[in-house]
Amino acid sequence: MLKNNDSIIFDLIQKEENRQETEIELIASENYASLDILEAAWSILSNKYSEWYPGKRYYAGQENIDKIEQIAINRAKEIFWAEYVNVQPLSWSPANLAVYLAFLKPWDKVLGLSLDQGWHLSHGHPLNFSWLLYEIIPYTLDSKTHLINMDEVDRLASENKPKMIIAGFSAYSRDLDWKRFREIADNVWAILMADISHIAGLIAGWVLENPIPYCDVVTTTTHKTLRWPRWAIIMSKWIYEKEIARAVFPWVQWGPHENLIAAKAVAFAEALKPEFKVYARQVIDNARVLASELQNHGFKIISGGTDNHLILVDVFGSFGVTWKEAELALEKVGLSANKNMIPYDTRKALDPSGIRIGTPAATTRGMKETEMKVIAKIFTEAIKNKDNETKLSSLKQEVLEMCGRFPIYK
Ligand SMILES: *Cc1c(COP(=O)(O)O)cnc(C)c1O
Asked: Which atom of ligand 1 is nearest to the CA of 91?
């Protein structure tokens, strides 16, 4: 119908579909939701206002909506072994705002990973509300190993007595020591919050340790390794239910998007299937092969490898190629990746030394170790031949051929 009624938008959606089908997505925070999820997401549930929570809504007519939201909550609890789950946050950033408001007062201290070393802007940065309202104390990575320096976390916690400690990242490729984080938080009576946005799918698939038993509160996006609709959830110990529920509604937001909550319920069911565990395992296996192949081709990988789905590559330090030059070359061959600062980067945030890549999307297409080796080769040749248009267009043909063998939706 859209085709006839609004061909401009219809055409652009078609073009975007074509772009997704014909490029290999290496952006670590992207993935492909299933057609079932997309169908639920665009359903007529979008028409309904359902402020507040199941069983105590403000408007009438909630008999179906209440069931859907409760099913989403129950399935999420089953996946993550969480005591309390709130499925209403519209995306991660409002979820974070709700958690901060639930647990902190203005000017309280928050301890979190330093921004230039792998955490997310919204944890505490001048560009985000978190910086205006709270005192952010950064902990850092060891300058040699590029691993989180847990002794420093311990020392900073004892010295500053933060109200909350955040363990979470958007560009760190190693496992976190959840137990040690818990001990440090206990020593200073701090709330321990984990932001598992990047690794939630790997936790749901049982290939990374589940931090929920160690944490007071855990937030996650649902569209990254989880392969779900664009959304977020908050999980916590049951004792915090009242504070979190109130912070989400009515403090931060009103009408929840029940169409997306339904899509999330569908997605939770997908994650409970045995196939999802196979997928999660493959995401990590693929990342390990991709990282070691890139090393063989001469790239410096931050921390020397990966324990999860993401790889931080020091392109400038490896070949003296800047991010912008690398991005252009990769775009020309149909590989999609994003710039990222590396720990102790000597270049600026908008023109950093690193590229962050990840395997969740390519793995969803069905790509395995063999394809990772080819991707590593194409990635390397594109960057080394960034000024050779003939070479770049023959690499583009290789990417097109591979994408044709691994369709996303067709
Ligand atoms: C992606 C990401 C976010 C932001 O999520 P949005 O849903 O886009 O607001 C927050 N935290 C981490 C660690 C992330 O990786």
From this structure: 7
Residue linked to tokens 């994003």:
338
Active site amino acids: 49, 51, 195, 221, 224, 230
36-271: CATH topology is: Aspartate Aminotransferase; domain 2 (3.40.640)
Which residues, listed in sequence order, are joined to residue 233 by a DSSP beta bridge? 220
For residue 331, count other CB atoms closer than 10 A to its CB.
15
CA–CA separation, 146 and 172 (whole Å): 9
Distances (CA, A) of 181 to 34, 164, 165, 233, 303: 35, 11, 8, 22, 20
Q: Which parts of the chain have pLDDT scores under 70?
A: 118-127
Q: Where in the chain is the domain with CATH 3.90.1150.10?
A: 278-405
Indicate the SS3 state at residue 358: strand
H-state helical runs in 297-368: 315-319, 323-333, 360-364
- What's the 408 CA to ligand 1 centre distance in angstroms? 24
Our answer on whether the CB atom of 221 is closer than 6 Å to any ligand 1 atom is yes
Instruction: Convert the pLDDT of each residue in 374-404 to its tens digit.
Output: 999 999 999 999 999 999 999 999 999 999 9
Q: How many CA atoms lie within 13 A of 4 on its CB side?
A: 1
Q: Is 353 in the pocket of ligand 1 (CB under 6 A)?
A: no
Rounded-to-10 torsion of CA 377, 381, 384, 389: -160
Would the CB of 31 count as within 6 Å of ligand 1? Answer: no
CB atoms within 10 A of CB 403: 20
Which two tokens mark 355?
Answer: 């590229």
State the pTM of this model.
0.94
Spatial separation of the C-alpha atoms in residues 111 and 131, rounded to whole Å: 12
- Residue ranges of the chain that CATH labels 3.40.640.10: 36-271
- The domain 278-405 having CATH identifier 3.90.1150.10: the answer here is yes
Interstrand relation of 354-358 and 310-314 (parallel, antiparallel or unpaired) = antiparallel
Give the whole-angstrom CA distance, residue 331 versus residue 327: 6
232 lines ligand 1 (CB under 6 A): yes
Going by C-alpha positions, the residue among 202, 206, 197, 219 that lies closest to residue 84 is 219
- Tokens of residue 187, six digits: 């020593």
